[in-house]
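# step 3/5: fold
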Amino acid sequence: MKLIFSLDELQDAARQLWANYPKARVFAFNGDMGAGKTTFIKALCAAKGVNGTTASPTFSIINEYRYKNGDGQDRTIYHLDLYRLKNLEEAVEAGVEDCLYHPSAVSFVEWPDVVADILPADTVHIFLSVTPGQQRQLVAGSANPGEFRPSLQ
């Protein structure tokens, strides 16, 4: 999946990602600082109807958001920002593995390289980049990120 969108088209891009991956549980967000990872995650949360504030968990590492699915059942979204973690051991101690393998929650992982070895096989890898026109390019896929990683231009 590939999308190019402006800030005005952000909500539509989020809805398109959900439509393309309706059953996905783990999304790994890659991209340079300022590419729009947190902003896109906020749009994904809004598209699911998350109430309350969504913000980057840079210092808390994990934020938890709640929404109701189509059947009115409470669901959880974990938003993980692993930028400050040095290694997999720190990630496991912080509870990252519990989020990644929670059977009914969705996890959005920013800076996922530190946990690459424990990401579920069906993780959706998302690569965000800024285009020359200040739009955003999103490329998503479920392949091995080493084989899939697009050029971020």
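# step 4/5: annotate
The chain has a mean pLDDT of 91.
# step 5/5: archive (pending)
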